[in-house]
Design goal:
The chain is mainly β and about 190 residues long. It is built from two helices and twelve strands, in the order ββββββββαβββαβ. It is elongated.
Amino acid sequence: MKVKQVFSAYNFQARNSLCNRYCSACGEKCVKKEAGGRERDSCPSCGFVHYENPSPAVSVLLVKDEKVLLGKRAHGSFKEGLWCLPCGFIEFDEDFLTAARREVQEETGLISEIESIISVMSNYLTPNLHTLVVVLVAHVIGGELCPGDDLDEVQWFSFSGVLPQMAFEADENIIARYWNTRIKGIPVDEDF
Ligand SMILES: [Zn+2]
């Protein structure tokens, strides 16, 4: 199976990244200025440069008895009604393993143990949302299955069966790749 780690949900090359921003430090209207090798929104008053970077996130393939746990995205959330792996953004003061366990618990009610890293993916989702996602394999060690946070439903799906309508191509890809290749990934830091 072909390895794929970059996913575009829209034509990001045609995106105009320079929009009408106001300085987050002083409130002045930003202007376009060269900084660090490309044009960026910069503040003419205090000099603050608005660097744009993808948001770091985690996605967790929770596996049990040849099944994977998926959540149905809640009404009002991005991609509502579609299904995805438990996932979320990493807090500034949080390591990615802690973030993964926290997201699993918040979204599914389950306590998980992370086994390995199976991929890292770039997702160009919308003009305002680009993510870099560390994909982890985990298993359940406790808790009770219950949808929380941004999900309306959580359910185990057989790897060999039909998946529901998925929110992200990256999730479909990694689920298929995991099942087709039984990829083990690399072990994670046991101290976290
Ligand atoms: Zn400023």
